Amino acid sequence: MRLRAEEIEQMSLQPGFWDDQKAAQALNKEKARAEELVRAWDSPSRALDDAFALLELANEAGDEDSRKEAEGSLDAIEEAIRGLELRRMLSGPNDGADAIIEINSGAGGTESMDWAAMLLRMYTRYCERQGWEVELADYTEGEEAGLKSASILVRGEFAYGFLKAEAGVHRLVRISPFDSQARRQTSFASVFVYPDIEADIEIDVKESDVRIDVYRSSGAGGQKVNKTSSAVRITHIATGIVVAVQNERSQHKNRDLAWKILKARLYELEEKKRNAEKQAIEETKTDIGWGSQIRSYVLAPYRLVKDTRTGEESSQVDKVLDGELQPFLEAFLLGKRNTSKGGLPE
């Protein structure tokens, strides 16, 4: 990282560097990130040297208080190094990008629609905890409760890098609030996560490649729902990808946002064609039902959230549903590291 920052610094001194404003800004952004990572590594490295020096002096002088101080500082250093290890796992080409999350209800009828709404709230709360900005792009209500589908844009540092761990089928087991006999029900919903690609990545989509429909908004919002035809639906004819946006009252804004999401999805599609592992994961999403879940949330007869990929679990179900997802995301990222070495941690 230090060498890369120095390389970009030298490039910035070359004539014509600023001729391409987008490319120059992208490189400066990469340079700033590299410099930040170098600073992040230098800090615990210096702290570790200081701790060892203090420990050596304490042992020579028989100073028990200094020895305890040196040993106590190691906990903070270990936490800092763990954070650096996590950042190392966020080194993919799009990990630093903003994210687009799509949620779709699956098997389970009204139950699954209510579950999809719970997931939307969970991700919104998680993003707010991270200090990220969340924008609702599309929302289609369920017939009786919850939602059929929804999509949100998440703007924040490494939003995609973390949230990509959530792509897959999520399973809920609980006593149904919609069942008069209070029976236990199992519901499913799928989550798709795409990077909000940088503007300088060229995805060529012609007007002739798509069908654009406008219609009246019908999402959540009561009296605030726009009664004019401001909602926009874009269908990419070749792939069948459909993007609908109805959040803004302006048809122009909705159209721009729909194009942005479509390009992100097409970019992700191209990435999957070049990545067999991602393609295999995508194929498992086609069946939003039994046997395909990445995580189970059990509220009855016991309370437990368990990720089937990493084994990470928590009995604090309410906290998880309120957005405390970080342990699951970190386990996924660090688990991918261990997978490359031959297996997941026990």
SSE order: HHHEHEEHEEEEEHHEEEHH
The number of helices is: 9
Distance between the termini: 32 Å
Instruction: Report the sheet-strand fraction.
Output: 15-25%
From the coordinates shown, what is the CATH architecture of the largest domain? 2-Layer Sandwich
Number of strands: 11
Radius of gyration: 24 Å
Low-confidence runs (pLDDT<50, min 5 residues)? 221-225, 339-346
Q: For the report, how would you describe the main beta sheet?
A: 8 strands, mixed
Tally of individual domains: 3
Structural class: alpha+beta
Share in helix:
40-55%
GO molecular function, one term: translation release factor activity, codon specific
Protein name: Peptide chain release factor 2
Keywords: Coiled coil, Cytoplasm, Methylation, Protein biosynthesis
Function: Peptide chain release factor 2 directs the termination of translation in response to the peptide chain termination codons UGA and UAA.
